[in-house]
Amino acid sequence: MHITEQSWLGSQDDRDRVIQGHLAWASADHAMTIFRLIPFSLHGVLELAAGFALMTVPFLFGFASAGVVIAVALGALMIGLALTTVSNGRDGLPIAAHASFDRLLVLALLGSAIALGLTADPRAALWLTLAALAELVLTLSTRYSFRA
Q: What is the pTM of this model?
């Protein structure tokens, strides 16, 4: 018995429906908004608050000097990055660049936490690890677009 391509794969219409279904599922709007619940403007507000918290907690809990310097520097970077969200894309930082900087900030926070953990400042290491996890959750749940 000879199986033809037509009978084995179904009709051309069936194949077209399958392809269209896959394309619709994998579209950028669908794939990017399933878990991205936080609008970009709220992302900026939350990032601003996190930056201020990152800068003030070391003084409240008496971190070692290296922990204070690193937390204040990364907090200032986070605040600066948060302030770029108010431009609506006209003359500010492009959204794709902001998303990339968010990921780099997570890596910088984790790297700093590891370095401080190795230099016997466990409170600073824990704080920077928590900040990195918070920034990671924020980054993963943000809808990086100016649409409402």
A: 0.73
